């Protein structure tokens, strides 16, 4: 296919897991009605962002993948003929949990999952308490409409992750994410943080000649202390913004992605061709010093 219609669902969540799943399904239907062929949901969309605290009870939110949520979404994917990208809290075994995204093809089949590789441990983002780093490596999935690469939230800061995913043949890069502002911060700090977040992801688009789709949650959580900043966006293969969501509204948008543009961009801006792969061995070091 030369073009694909991508649906992006930016929504707020509640403490009710079933309510969030039901709402996401409604949003997927809205996107499909607008012509979407691939629909991306935000990170951990079945719950509030629970990693603001270290609470053992929150492990009860996890589920197997495949499991109840993927089962429900597979039915919807098959009915609507759409690919669904679903970010979920995975219970792999007793005491072993991951931040994981499942990919469901347009015929309802389960294509597999990607487990988040980079796990933060910041104030209000205590993910290392909950998530084991991914052990599946970087992944691409051949769906009906495109070969897609999936990375998750904190992965978005790492050019190495996007590069490897691009080199595996991804035609579109997707980033389900959950990031926001501490509501005590000043507006200048808020702008700086959001601009850094958008800029790094657009740079992955430029460096790899790939469209990037970043889908963030929105709304106040953590008893009003955190405003998830929305601002979901899509770029073309040169990093140009095709769509930019608001910071405070739920939005379901469908964006046209031209899959042929990557070839044109890579010919005229041949960053992949000019890579000096013979010089990159030091990148595997923690830091380049004498130790």
From TrEMBL:
Gene3D superfamilies: Carbon-nitrogen hydrolase (3.60.110.10)
CDD domains (UniProt xref): CPA (cd07573)
Presence of the UniProt keyword DNA-binding in the record: no
Residue span(s) of domain CN hydrolase: 4-259
Annotated GO MF terms: N-carbamoylputrescine amidase activity
Keywords, comma-separated and alphabetical: Hydrolase
Gene Ontology terms describing biological process: putrescine biosynthetic process from arginine
Domain of life: Bacteria
Protein name: Carbon-nitrogen hydrolase
Source species: Pedobacter chitinilyticus
